[in-house]
Amino acid sequence: MSSSDIVITGIGAVTAGAVGRVAHWDLLQNGRVTTSENDYSLKLFRPDSHVKDRRYLRSCSQADGIGLAALSGLMTDSNFDPKYYSPERVGIYTGESPPNPQDHSGHFEALEAARDEHGHISEKVFGQASRSARPVTLLLGLSNNVLCYGSLMWDARGPNSNYTSSVLSAHLAVINAAKRMQRGALDLAIAGGCSDSTEEFRKATLIATNIAAGYAKGTAVADGAAFITLERRKAALARGSRILASYISSAYSCDGLGPARFDRDGNALYDCIVRALSAAAVNPAEIGLIFSGSSGLPDLDLMETQVLGRVFAGAATPPALADTSRVLGGLMEAGGMLDLGLVSEFFTCGVVPPAVRPHVNRGQFSNLITPERPFALALRCSTSGEYSCVIVKGELN
Amino acid sequence: MKDSPYQKSKGKRPPKRRVVVTGIGAITPLGHSMDITWDGIVNGRTPASPIQYFDASEFPNRIAYQVTDFSLSRKLLKDGEDAYLCECAEFAVNAAEEALEQSGLLGSSRPETTNPNRIQVCFGMGLPSPNIDWYEKVFFPKKLSLEESLNNARILPDQISSIIARMVGARGGISTVHTACASSGQALGEAYESIAYGDADLVVTGGADSMISPFYAAGFALLGALSKRNDDPKTASRPFDRNRDGFVFGEGACVLVFEEYDHACKRGALILGEVCGYGITESAYRITDLHPEGTGPIEAMQMALDDANLKPTDIGYINAHGTSTQLNDRIESLAISKVFGPFSKDTLVSSTKSMTGHTIAAAGALEFAFCLLALRHQTLPPSVNISSFDTDCLITLTAPEAQPRNFRFALSNSVGFGGSNTALIAGRIGR
After folding, report:
1. What pTM did the predictor assign?
2. For A259, which of B55, B162, B186 is closest by C-beta distance?
3. B86 is known as an active-site residue
4. Domain A249-394 belongs to what topology?
């Protein structure tokens, strides 16, 4: 099976700005008014009305709830009908943020009850007090709940995985799901991720403090979830499914310098892009659109820009460059999925909407997207020097 | 038994490359190296004891298999990296050092021929295990200083993968997997496939976990999953015994070096065994329970056999997930009996959790390493703490003492909360 036989047939997404595929494209086209980091929080989002089976939410954290709301939307968007697929050949690949301490609310009361007269928490008293906590307290903190409940929702019993690889998580989910499909072990894969990290980042003062001014002071971390459906073109057409884009190839790499360090020379990112292009047998001149990884950290963004300059130095006409995190925020474990699923909308539009034009000066790239070059390259870059690249093709008919 | 659904894809699969193991390192309650740990397994040691990490006197379950007298090795750590290490990640640092050293990947013995772009890290990491002190310092405050923020970073699960990548000079990519108790089984499976299908030549893989904290002790107790044999810790973990009453916490790390066969041969690496097959399924039943018919593990084992192109009778030993809970052991043994036949004498079963406790995210890696060593030494691990075998478990256990056995393949099962099931097949090299 060639890579282009795998197609994207649906998007399910919940972010602070929109819910669903159409609403997200509208959001990316028109932008949004952002005045503070609170705009990217889904703390107040209630998944109940979005999730197909609300029983699942009884033992779900907020991140899980957001993820299941997105997976429910994906089911509708991809018009999923289980009769077309054997459950053993349907697999879910997720990325999910580590448990948010706020999710451990069941133990919160026990912790408070265990304070002694000096205000210290006594382990001994906690041992007693925690006995009255709800049993699901532990389950709220599991980072593979979306994989579990998503599998129940989709009756997916095939190969699966869950990645806790920070901003690369959803890309790794797509990369590994697609590899499984290419090897013939899966017919349908659901891939993506969810994240609920704004509160922790805010507390750690690691979040951008002035969103409206761009990314001058760090990552604008956003809560959200986004998943896509991958299936074989022939099967998708046979069941009358709409095809949103084709998956072409992917790669990932790392600098190998340890946590919170990256190589300013950008060699590993360069290798990652070249490998993905090589696997796709696509020439850089055929890439019409790049979705930047845009971490929000000036040095990393500068390195990314320089690497893209190296890769596309020989292209007669520069590709267009888009930065969807300007509107969506840094979606962490959920990041990158809307880039892949909405690529055809970008090609049809023909221009990078102003709201998602890169904030920093990246003059060597264009704002025009030409259908003659229907391949798009989507990047993810982490501050620990980890990189991924997925190449997709717009479906323009 | 119906045909495996995975046979549908037979004949379509791309050719696979052979994957071998050239290094193993471990930090476990049995010892601070793989050799000492294996010695503990062969001798049936059960080092469980009352929990020492916190005052567990008012908890319903007060025992664990703990790593004692541990000190972090700084030989391969860079300045400042220890700030990113939670306790179980510290175990992984020492285990990685042992595995990389055995594989000849450190210092001057490091092969020049290995392309860094063809080296990856794929690691199964447990959940953060905050102690009470952490809640006081990190959870309750509204704002944190940089130092306090670093305390938060210590529990991010992907930091150890990044550190191991630096140790081995990997530039081919990093992934960190979490599927509860199946985490490292899954990490090993993905590492194996990465090499088998040509994406990498060498992958450092494994798992680490420690859940011996007040929070998890309370949580698992509420679920009724832990043994209450507080007065007799050494016999509390008793997989497949009629009177089993839950699992006992373990902790530790196991790191393995997986390598493409020709790549290992060319550099003259010691080959410890082969990774022959991998199966991964999802039960899609309940978050904490197996399907009563054992469908998920059945399919994972069938998938691994298909992948390895083996018959059930080729497998001489199964290292079961065998947690010592009533439910897991009954259903897993049912699944084994459906694939390998009831009370099969060809395929003997044990659960080494009677000697290590349940190391959660590290279990899959550690137990696959036991399969490799069992094959290498042609020795079956003993079935320990069986005072009355549960005959509802339709399997044949290994003997109470380690026994010699001529066998070529072994299978390791992992089953996780959330429904992920893995099966990995190890082969004796030179078979």
Report:
1. 0.95
2. B162
3. no
4. Peroxisomal Thiolase; Chain A, domain 1 (3.40.47)
pLDDT of B298 strictly over 90: yes
Q: Is B259 exposed, middle or buried (0-12, 13-18, 19+ CB in 10 A)?
A: buried
What is the pLDDT, as a whole number, of residue B386? 98
The per-residue pLDDT for A387 is 98
Q: Between chains, do A184 and B163 touch, taking CB under 8 Å as contact? A: no
Percentage with pLDDT > 70 across chain B: 93
For residues A101-113, give the mean pLDDT. 71
Q: Which residues of A touch B156 (CB under 8 A)?
A: 98, 166
- The verdict on a CB contact (< 8 Å) between A157 and B12 is no
Check: CB of residue B59 under 8 Å from CB of residue B218. Answer: yes
Q: A138 and B125: CB-CB below 8 Å?
A: no
The residues of chain B that CATH labels 3.40.47.10 are 5-9+276-427, 20-266
Structure confidence at residue B1 (pLDDT): 36
B180 neighbors A144 (Cβ within 8 angstroms): yes
Overall size of chain B counted in residues = 431
Instruction: For residue A313, give the DSSP letter.
Output: T
DSSP B342: T
Query: How far is the first Cα of chain B from the last one, in angstroms, to the nearest whole number?
Result: 29
Which of A161, A187, A270, A383 to substitute to test the interface with B, most B CBs within 10 Å? A161
B213 to chain A: closest CA residue? A123
Using 50, 70 and 90 to split pLDDT, how confident is the model at A214?
A: very low
Predicted confidence (pLDDT) per residue in A8-55, tens digit: 999 999 999 999 999 999 999 998 766 665 678 898 899 999 998 888
DSSP states of B117-164 as a string? GGEEEEEEE------HHHIIIIIS-SS--HHHHHHHHTT-TTHHHHHH
Q: Which CATH architecture has domain B20-266?
A: 3-Layer(aba) Sandwich (3.40)
Å from B401 to nearest chain A CA? 36
Q: What is the pLDDT of residue A215?
A: 44
B86, B88, B122, B181: which is the annotated catalytic residue? B181
CB contact under 8 A, A165 and B186: no
- How close A112 gets to chain B, by Cα (Å)? 10
Residues of A in contact with B416 (CB under 8 A): 144
Per domain, the residue ranges of chain A are 3-101+139-238, 102-138, 249-394
Nearest CA in chain B to A250: B199
pLDDT band at B10; cut points 50, 70, 90? very low
The pLDDT value given to residue A208 = 52
| SS3 state at B312 | helix
Question: What's the rounded Cα separation, in Å, for the pair A59 and A144?
Answer: 12
Which residues of chain A lie closer than 8 angstroms to B172, CB-CB? 253-254
Q: Taking residues B327-333, report their average pLDDT.
A: 97
Note the CATH number of domain A3-101+139-238. Answer: 3.40.47.10
Chain segment B269-279, per-residue pLDDT in tens: 999 999 999 99
Domains A3-101+139-238 and A249-394 share a fold: yes
- Least confident segment among A332-346, B150-164, B220-234, B333-347: B150-164
Task: Please list every residue in chain B whose beta carbon sits closer than 8 Å to the beta carbon of residue A104.
Answer: 215
The architecture in CATH of the region B5-9+276-427 reads 3-Layer(aba) Sandwich (3.40)
**Which positions in chain B touch A255 (Cβ < 8 Å)?**
171
CA-angle at B363, arms to B361 and B367, nearest 5°: 155
A269-304 tens-digit pLDDT: 999 999 999 999 999 999 999 999 988 788 898 899
- What does the radius of gyration of chain B's CA atoms come to, in whole angstroms? 20
Nearest CA in chain A to B16: A183
Would the CB atoms of A254 and B78 count as touching at under 8 Å?
A: no
Annotation marks residue B358 as catalytic? yes
Average pLDDT of every residue of chain A: 88
| Among candidate residues A14, A65, A67, A7, the one with its CA nearest the CA of residue A338 | A14
Contact A384 B179 (CB under 8 A): no
